[in-house]
Amino acid sequence: MATTANVKKNGIDKKPGETNKKPVPVPKIIKPAPPVKSNSSDVTKDLAQEAIGQEPVVSIEDRILQVEKLKGLTDRHKRATATLNSLSEFKYNSSESCKITIIDDAGKSFTTGDINLIRNIADSAEAYIKGKKQDVENDLKSFTL
Asked: Which residues of 31-57 are buried (b: 16+ CB within 10 A; e: fewer)?
């Protein structure tokens, strides 16, 4: 053991063989997270496609469903285009012969001849249909068989 003089001199009462050094912390080993499991058939198809450089085989039913979806998109585009053409041909007159009527499911109706209100309704309808047409065009551009 250390003498009292030694303790006063060094400031520490050490046992023989001990040092003043602090222990070095051991680095923590971080294990990577396990990969997220996905549909194994998708992974297999992707790997097969990479390996041979070809697209995976698509079943006839899937192809028919995709064609039907494409047909629906083209029909929506045609209807939007026809509606926009019809609205652009509409003539606004300041006479009493220009009217708009809205009828609900219960048979109640609202009719007005106010040209400013009719113009606002037609302009709003045109902007709405243009937005829907743009959405359909974006879907058609990104569509793949």
From this structure: eeeeeeeeeeeeeeeeeeeeeeeeeee
User: pLDDT tens digit string along 69-114?
Assistant: 999 999 999 999 999 999 888 877 666 678 889 999 999 999 998 8
136 pLDDT tier (thresholds 50, 70, 90): very high
1-30 pLDDT tens trace = 555 555 555 555 556 666 666 666 777 777
Contacts of 62 (CB under 8 A, 6+ apart): none
Amino acid, single-letter form, for residue 39: N
> 13 and 7 in contact (C-beta within 8 Å)?
yes
State whether residue 64 is helix, strand or coil: helix
Q: Where are the alpha helices (DSSP H) in the chain?
A: 4-10, 40-52, 60-89, 115-142
Domain boundaries, the chain: 58-145
CA distances from 83 to 3, 14, 33, 97 (A): 104, 95, 54, 22
Global pTM value:
0.55
